[in-house]
Amino acid sequence: MGEVNSLPLSEQKRIVEEKWPEALVKEKVEEEKKLPPLPNVDKYKTVVTRFSPNPDCVLHLGSARAIILCHEYARMYRGKFILRFEDTDPKLKRPVPEFYDSIREDLMWLGCKPDEEYIQSDRIPIYYEYAEKLINDGNAYVCICTPQAFREKILAQKPCPCRDLPPETHMERWQRMLDGEYNEGEAVVRIKTDLNHPNPAVRDWPALRIIDTEEYPHPRVGSKYRVWPLYNFACGLDDHLMGVTHIIRGKEHLTNMVRQKYMYSHLGWEYPEAIHYGRLKIVGAYLSKSKIVQGVKGGLYTGWDDPRLATFAALRKRGITPAAIKRLIIDVGPKTSDVVLSWENLYAYNRKILDPEVNRYFFVQTPIQLTVHGLPRTFIAKIRLHPERPERGFKEYVIKTSEGDTALFWISRNDLKSLTVGKAVRLMELFNIKIESVEAYAVEASFLSESYEDAKRMDAPLIHWVPIGDDMPCQVVMPDAATVEGVAEKACKNLKSGDIVQFERFGFVRIERLDGKILAYFAHK
RNA sequence: GCUCCGGUAGUAUAGCCCGGUCAAGUAUUCCGGCCUUUCGAGCCGGAGACGCGGGUUCAAAUCCCGCCCGGAGCACCA
To answer: Gap from A32 CA to B8 C1', in Å?
Structure first.
């Protein structure tokens, strides 16, 4: 051991290469983290997962866990991924037509295309059918107690007066519910459970209730139905009916599973495998639908894609790639503890994806004028669009010694701090200069030399620049919605809306608009 | 309050079920260095964690008990 360690590294490496070449190869394979296996996959012919949003808001990073986990597992086992809109509350959580589409779009953008799609508001007759069966079999009943009266009974582990009435009576009441003879809140269908269950919330839970859809019409089916299923009823039935084998959802649904299991046993069904992951938050962002809706409606945010929001629309606008989100979610995995992500984690994945792909440009933030005197000749700066990929092409600027021997540039006021009178500075990819004078809005300098080696030897700071005249105005909207003003180099005029580029020494941005001037959104450093 | 989860570095994660190979791995972050006409990326090195207290055991991040902290649910919402 000591003998081996005393050898130079290159020698050690040579020996290993000779004797165990496979050891080195293995070392280089950077393994991507994989999802842990799903439980009891063998029990089912095909794995079926579902993502079931309420279309009452746009999707955000908080939903990413459900979407990506469900989709990824479905792919992993060559199974099926279902999108199911749970829009059964026309009153309190009103679905909004535009969100059905925005959710579909977000899923496509994320690369999580559903194999099938269902909308619960189209399935009301199915829910009625099972409600009747359950009532007929004495496993459900129509309760006409006031909520308070019922609550008292159930807390005392006693049946309410309705519970033990014969099924025929309840079938009559059910018919009256459908016929509109009860008003909102006057009757509710309950699933029978164990009255002694330790958690009062699971005892005889409500399955269907009445909504006055004349007053609160459903955006898709209007006033067609007065009796609407509650979450546990619709969701519980659908999961079985659609053949869902693995339910992957947040742990807030843990008690819902307990409730639904009673219904499954009434129907003689077997409950699917269920994974309840923890809550996902990201520092500084509101991931609550109500906060988002409130903020957008109230004008606090510019829209669903306001850069301060962690909606997919906002992330997309900023140039955060779906691949980065996917890696992040897979990295976090399906465990039950809550996580508070830091943006750095997301950015790091995104940077890894973007860096080898996107072109580089100069953007000068809060520009000030730099005058360079004493140019010996005209210079041509020919700069690669991507440092490692010369085949991408170049951008070219001719630095003319127009007025005598001087040239004018924009440089960033932020770089003022690295400029000291008498010291050398390198204009990246161009030449070295010596600072003669520094004022708040103007810097004077003189030409020093051309070679990069000189700059290195002098330990000169490197700053980027845009030739005055070869510039175009550019605004960058930052993640806090503040706007940074500056100038971009002229070559940016060839960019298109939607392009993601790196503004060197500034960060990655996505081009939003280009009309003589540039509007970009900042992704990250 | 009741019911149920969970707590590994700044962040995220592996390991926990089936104690030893964990003087705890990985990614990111931060700090150095190298490389490179930029930042970045890349390469090399460094910093940084088992919530607390008991117990069982030759041996505990892993098993048991207590405590503390965090979260979720307790709707005729999803």
So the answer is: 21
> In this structure, are residues A327 and A349 in contact, taking their beta carbons and an 8 Å threshold?
yes
Contact A410, A471 (CB under 8 A): yes
Q: What is the CATH number of the domain that holds A58?
A: 3.40.50.620
Q: Cα–Cα distance between A265 and A202 in angstroms, integer?
A: 14
Q: Which nucleotide is nearest to A184 (CA to C1')?
A: B76
Residue with tokens 């991931």, as numbered in its chain: A287
Q: Which nucleotide lies closest to A206 by the C1' atom and the CA atom?
A: B76
Q: Is strand B less than 7 A from the beta carbon of A188?
A: yes
Residue listed under structure tokens 């006033």: A223
pLDDT string in tens for chain A (525-residue length): 233 333 333 333 333 433 333 333 333 334 567 889 999 999 999 999 999 999 999 999 999 999 999 999 999 999 999 999 999 999 999 999 999 999 999 999 999 999 999 999 999 999 999 999 999 999 999 999 999 999 989 988 999 999 999 999 999 999 999 999 999 999 999 999 999 888 888 999 999 999 999 999 999 999 999 999 999 999 999 999 999 999 999 999 999 999 999 999 999 999 999 999 998 999 888 888 888 999 999 999 999 999 999 999 999 999 999 999 999 999 999 999 889 999 999 999 999 999 999 999 999 999 999 999 999 999 999 999 999 898 999 999 999 876 678 999 999 999 998 898 999 999 999 999 999 999 988 999 999 999 888 888 888 999 999 999 999 999 999 999 999 999 999 999 999 999 999 999 999 999 999 999 999 999 999
Residues A452 and A524 reside in one and the same domain: yes
**What ipTM was assigned to the predicted interfaces of this complex?**
0.92
Q: Which of residues 61-90 of A touch strand B (CB under 7 A)?
A: 86, 88-89
Q: Is the CB of A252 under 7 A from strand B?
A: yes
Protein chain A, residues 156-185, with a C-beta closer than 7 Å to any atom of nucleic acid strand B: 184-185
Q: Among A208, A187, A178, which residue's Cα sits nearest to residue A143? A: A187
C1' of B5 to CA of A255 (Å)? 11
Choose the final residue of a domain: A230, A262, A277. A277
Alpha helices in A249-395 (DSSP H): 254-267, 289-297, 312-318, 322-332, 343-354
- Which residue, counting CA atoms, is nearest to the C1' of nucleotide B70? A338
Q: B54 C1' – A459 CA distance, angstroms? A: 60
Chain B bases having any atom below 7 Å from a protein CB: 2-8, 10-15, 27-29, 36-42, 70-78
Total number of domains in chain A: 3
Measuring from the CA of residue A283 to each C1', which nucleotide is nearest?
B11
Residue that terminates a domain, selected from A246, A277, A308: A277
Q: Please give the C-alpha separations between residue A166 and each of A135, A177, A337, in angstroms, as whole numbers.
A: 9, 17, 45
Q: In this structure, what CATH number is given to the domain that contains residue A497? A: 2.40.240.100
- Cβ atoms of residues A449 and A431 within 8 Å: yes
Within residues 193-222 of protein chain A, the ones with CB less than 7 A from nucleic strand B are 198-201, 206, 209-210
